Amino acid sequence: MIKKKISKILVPLDGSKNSLRGLETAITLARQCKATITGVYSIYAPPHSEFRGIGSVEKAFNKQIKKFMEEAKFLAAQNGIVFNEKLMRGDIGYNIIKMAHSKEKFDMIVMGSRGRSSAKEIFFGSVSNYVIHTSKIPIVIVK
Questions:
Q1: Nearest to 128 by CA among 3, 12, 8, 25
Q2: How far is CA 8 from CA 27, 28, 90, 100, in A?
Q3: Contacts of residue 93, Cβ cutoff 8 Å, sequence gap at least 6
Q4: Whole-angstrom Cα distance, residue 120 to residue 135?
Q5: SS3 state at 41
Q6: Among 74, 57, 8, 63, which Cα is nearest to 41's?
Q7: Which runs of E-coded beta strand occur in 1-143?
Q8: Which of 32, 85, 118, 123 is deepest in the core (most CB within 10 A)?
Q9: Closest CA to 37 of 46, 22, 27, 47
Q10: How far apart are CA 116 and CA 119, in angstroms?
């Protein structure tokens, strides 16, 4: 007998095809469990950067993010799923974990994997790897 009900799913999004596949998987799970989805788009921003983004570039990037989040919200709505969105700046992996363990009490994280090779992962790290090893709630990684 299953005792834990899934009612809130966190889906990290970055605009990639893999994050979209993660969203599609989360929508499938949400339909079966009658859960809501919160899509979080985290932008990497070093804490004390000497180089700030050029205004026009940052505006174009924000428009791109907004467009992607609207598409995600529309896809969820087409499937009868409530979709909330959140935009965060800072360390991406840390932000995902912080959000997952916040007062909102998410039951699951569903995220896409970039599919980096193991050699690149050693040098650059991997957000999904960080989340897997840090999270206290179940995670589904979609390739």
A1: 12
A2: 11, 13, 23, 10
A3: 125, 127, 130, 131, 134
A4: 23
A5: strand
A6: 63
A7: 8-13, 36-44, 83-90, 108-112, 139-142
A8: 85
A9: 27
A10: 8
* Domains along the chain with CATH numbers: 8-142 (3.40.50.620)
Name the burial class of residue 41, with classes exposed (0-12), middle (13-18) and buried (19+) by CB atoms within 10 angstroms of its CB: buried
Going by their DSSP bridges, the two strands 108-112 and 83-90 should be labelled as unpaired
pLDDT values of the chain reduced to their tens digit, one per residue, 143 residues: 566 789 999 999 988 888 999 999 999 999 999 999 999 998 877 665 555 555 566 777 788 999 999 999 999 999 999 999 999 988 899 999 999 999 999 999 999 987 544 555 544 458 898 999 999 999 999 98
Residue type, 63: K
Nearest to 96 by CA among 13, 24, 37: 13
Phi then psi dihedrals of residue 117, to 5 deg: -70, 160
